[in-house]
């Protein structure tokens, strides 16, 4: 499992662009650092198509802690260096894509841990949002808050039916960070709907998310969703890849600039909010309510 990404052929050497994701796909796990074996992600790369599939695997909820987010971020960076063409982000769980930030690690945590968590979230968002790779979120389960962030930072979203997706921060008394707001606005057909959604903590069903434009397609199975994801990536011909990547980055540049200017302020807000006794009390109750569902 603990194989580094080393033998991925340069995409420029691939002779054929449109091939199904099958026979020559290799599966290996992504390293968290050059010396550490991966723990929470698995990466498979199709040598013929240059399409990578990064599978989130941190049971039970793919809750995002610093180590996990670092792994995802490094996988994307590694794939960029290898000139991989496209990335499909999905989950090993059959019901949760990602439940967002690991709230258990936000509860009664010291400042250094909270800071590590938030910086890892900022870095992951920045890397995913700005990558030149063609990105598809294959949402095969609930995608809440930080889980929805992963989806909306990608370029295209394909979701399986009967799940929930959305950003619920204001419901818990927290402001949505401006970079997440901008990311959400970037993909929604209407700014007005985006504002409504984020101010009201709207959580969509898969079906209503499709109608609203929050996701681009539904698929009835993961297999079908993988085929649709590959088709989206394949819809960009090799000839256009560089121009496409530059154009994508130009579209996203202003959001990234705003983020860099406010990065410290964004961290300060998070730290001060999370350290408030009232917030910690609420968080304790919220975690209990998740447990009480059993
Ligand atoms: C409330 C304080 C929020 C603090 C946030 C701070 C700042 C926010 C500012 C900006 C926002 C942008 C950055 C993103 C922030 C976030 O992502 S905050 C996380 C918000 N996420 C949620 O509120 C999701 C909570 N979970 C659920 O609603 C459900 O679990 C579900 C995802 C819909 C799945 O439901 P179901 O299939 O019924 O599964 P369970 O509820 O039984 O959950 C399974 C196990 O997973 C554990 N779990 C679920 N979510 C989290 C989580 N976020 N962190 C850690 N653990 C989580 C749950 O406790 C179960 O565990 P056990 O099986 O009991 O061990």
Automatic annotation (TrEMBL):
<comment type="function">
    <text>Key enzyme of fatty acid beta-oxidation. Able to isomerize both 3-cis (3Z) and 3-trans (3E) double bonds into the 2-trans (2E) form in a range of enoyl-CoA species, with a preference for (3Z)-enoyl-CoAs over (3E)-enoyl-CoAs. The catalytic efficiency of this enzyme is not affected by the fatty acyl chain length.</text>
</comment>
<comment type="pathway">
    <text>Lipid metabolism; fatty acid beta-oxidation.</text>
</comment>
<protein>
    <recommendedName>
        <fullName>Enoyl-CoA delta isomerase 1, mitochondrial</fullName>
    </recommendedName>
</protein>
<keyword id="KW-0413">Isomerase</keyword>
<keyword id="KW-0007">Acetylation</keyword>
<dbReference type="Pfam" id="PF00378">
    <property type="entry name" value="ECH_1"/>
</dbReference>
<keyword id="KW-0496">Mitochondrion</keyword>
<dbReference type="GO" id="GO:0005759">
    <property type="term" value="C:mitochondrial matrix"/>
</dbReference>
<comment type="subunit">
    <text>Homotrimer.</text>
</comment>
<keyword id="KW-0809">Transit peptide</keyword>
<dbReference type="InterPro" id="IPR029045">
    <property type="entry name" value="ClpP/crotonase-like_dom_sf"/>
</dbReference>
<dbReference type="GO" id="GO:0004165">
    <property type="term" value="F:delta(3)-delta(2)-enoyl-CoA isomerase activity"/>
</dbReference>
<keyword id="KW-0443">Lipid metabolism</keyword>
<keyword id="KW-0276">Fatty acid metabolism</keyword>
<dbReference type="GO" id="GO:0006635">
    <property type="term" value="P:fatty acid beta-oxidation"/>
</dbReference>
<dbReference type="InterPro" id="IPR001753">
    <property type="entry name" value="Enoyl-CoA_hydra/iso"/>
</dbReference>
